[in-house]
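Bench log, entry 3. Co-assembly request; chain sequences pasted below exactly as received.
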Amino acid sequence: MNTLVENGDLPVLTLDKNTPVTAQVYSHIRQLILRLHLKPGEALSEQELSVKLGLSRTPVREAFIRLADEGLVDVYPQRGTLVAPIRIAEVKEAHFIRRVLEFAIVRSAAENAGRRHLALLEENLRLQAKAQRRKDYESLMDHDEAFHRLLSESVALPRAWRVIQSLMGQLDRVRYRILPKPGHGDLVRQQHVAIFRAIQAGDADRAEHEMREHLDQIWATIEQLMRDDREFFTD
Amino acid sequence: MNTLVENGDLPVLTLDKNTPVTAQVYSHIRQLILRLHLKPGEALSEQELSVKLGLSRTPVREAFIRLADEGLVDVYPQRGTLVAPIRIAEVKEAHFIRRVLEFAIVRSAAENAGRRHLALLEENLRLQAKAQRRKDYESLMDHDEAFHRLLSESVALPRAWRVIQSLMGQLDRVRYRILPKPGHGDLVRQQHVAIFRAIQAGDADRAEHEMREHLDQIWATIEQLMRDDREFFTD
DNA sequence: TTGCGACTGCTGCCATGGTAGTGTGCCAAT
DNA sequence: ATTGGCACACTACCATGGCAGCAGTCGCAA
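Structure output for the full assembly:
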């Protein structure tokens, strides 16, 4: 029997009465997938998840729809729903798209970012450093994400962030596997600092260059992982 | 009384038994919105649409969810669902993102496109010319879309196309209003030809340059429209 | 005339039940 | 031993009904 979740090791979803249940279920399952609590290829089921969460099948089903649009689950009508495998081609593509978007964003940030956003970015860097010292990788990843979100907000492209977000779905599962590698966190943090300094100086070329270094380094690590950890990927 | 659809002037949705109804409803409504048969700000209703389509409310509702994710409708819980207004800021943002993606795609196409894709592009250009001569703007728009899709396929970035697609949702409604302007179609077609020639020649710089001309020209037209047609936009 | 509260008619949200489609395994026929 | 077919279990799909939240109205009281 392939139980969906091994009893109590999953964070229990505590419902907030104010926001729609569907949305909460969606982000809950999304987190479970991205953090690899639900493994690629694992079978899901409206039925099973709904009883496990103490809800009806409708909100679960509607969450599946959104996850399928995002490419995180594959729905096979009348047969079942699986956590999407990590497809190498899709990871490559997501990274490619992310690159061009982030380059454009960071250039624009260097040219336009205001005092306020610079302060927010600086604060974020402090939080990253703190999480790094504590080896709190979960929150480090949150701050990392927030760093990139702040960048896209600083140039008033909220929608770009949503696009990147949905692409990152493909990358996050990989990243999550990489994070605890020794030295990796420090390097990433230094690169973030370098990007920040370039933006602060208003130097678009340097900012793009630093971002390129950053993303290329991440990509190298991902490729490394794809070689070492073949059974985790498809294609 | 603001009836959702004025009786018979909407294309009737003919159901295909093989594919899920939800998906069909989704793309049906999406087309209605993009082609402006459903106007920005217009009220939708699960109830009303479901009876009009002869279905239950469930697939309509599920289609709404996807449309809301895409930004084409705004759902106000317990109050109603509206066709999203055309927000100038979002149009700008969509165009910005589209630019950087299309530049990267066209460069990559110039460097990598194979014989087969070049042939497909050439064929597409012929179809565009034909539609242009017939003043068949609806199908011209389809071919235009296909042209850009072929580009992203030629570099094996199918997901990039989906991203662009969803961004284009914001732009399509605008484009649809521009198309019939005299001279516009010819110009666009010439630009497409220029892009194609550059790709064929394998000249990435020129290809990007021609794409830039193309998109900038489109943008100028959009800005013109935003000035002339203020009541169609929000913000 | 004006303020305010109950009422009514909407909406989308969630629960639940029936159905059709798909795969699996058993059993019989060869 | 192999294969064909059929029953069954399981899935997601769609229909439907009850409900809570919000707005607009209408009437009553100050």
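Strands of chain B lie at 43-44, 73-76, 80-83, 86-87, 233-234. Residues 87-234 of chain B form a domain with the Four Helix Bundle (Hemerythrin (Met), subunit A) fold (CATH 1.20.120.530).
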